[in-house]
Structure formats: C-alpha cells, structure tokens
Amino acid sequence: MKTLQFKTNINCGGCIKAVTPTLNQEAGAGNWQVDTANPDKILTISSDKLTLEQVVQAVENAGFKIQAA
C-alpha cells in the first residue's frame, strides 16, 4: 500500500463526520485518518488504487480545501 498525505482544512469532529462518507467510499473505512492536532490538519490515506488527483477531487467535492503535503 502507498501512503498519501495532504494538508486540509478538516479541523474538527464535525468536519470529519462530514467527509467520512466520501472518504470511506473512496479509500475504504480504516484506510484514512485526519490529524486535527497538527496545525496543517494532515489527511493520511493508505491505498493502492487511489491517485493524488482522485483524493483531491473527493475532498473538494465534500466541501473542504486540500493540497498535497
């Protein structure tokens, strides 16, 4: 599995709840996490199938900002 990391504005439990359905669908439950304690709110995804572009598109579609870390 490859690990992808991104800076986001997913910064609270409500934000995580909002993006969970999208990320579970794209990456699978348990294959992603957001470090809200980190100032850059790092989203880490473990996947062999997802590309950087697919993750960015999914998170933006859920209403959040994202960029490669």
Describe, in plain words, how this protein is organized in 3D.
The chain is an alpha+beta fold and 69 residues long. It is 36% helix and 29% strand. It has 2 helices and 4 strands; from the N terminus they run E-H-E-E-H-E. It has a 4-stranded antiparallel sheet, covered by helices on one side. Strand 2 and strand 3 form a beta hairpin. Helix 1 crosses helix 2. The radius of gyration is 10 Å and the shape is globular. The protein starts with a strand and ends with a strand. The model has no long low-confidence stretch (mean pLDDT 96). InterPro entries: HMA_dom, HMA_dom_sf. It holds the Pfam family HMA. This is Heavy-metal-associated domain-containing protein.
Core attributes:
single chain; 69 residues; alpha+beta; 4-stranded antiparallel β-sheet; 4 strands; 36% helix; HMA_dom
List the helices and strands and how they pair.
Layout: E1 2-8, H1 13-27, E2 32-35, E3 42-47, H2 52-61, E4 66-68
Organism: Hymenobacter humi
Protein name: Heavy-metal-associated domain-containing protein
Pfam families: HMA (PF00403)
Task: Briefly summarize what is shown.
The protein is α+β, with helices and mostly antiparallel strands and 69 residues long. It is built from 2 helices and 4 strands. Strand 2 and strand 3 form a beta hairpin.
Mean pLDDT across residues: 96
The neighbouring-strand order within the major sheet is 2-3-1-4
Q: Give the oligomer, counting copies of the same chain as homo and different chains as hetero.
A: single chain
Could you give the order of the helices and strands? EHEEHE
Number of strands: 4
Largest β sheet strand count, sense and barrel closure: 4 strands, antiparallel
Q: State the shape.
A: globular
Distance between the termini: 18 Å
Radius of gyration: 10 Å
Number of helices: 2
Which regions contain 5 or more consecutive residues with pLDDT less than 50? none
- Given helix and strand content, the structural type is alpha+beta
Helix content: 25-40%
What proportion of the residues form beta strands (DSSP E)? 25-35%
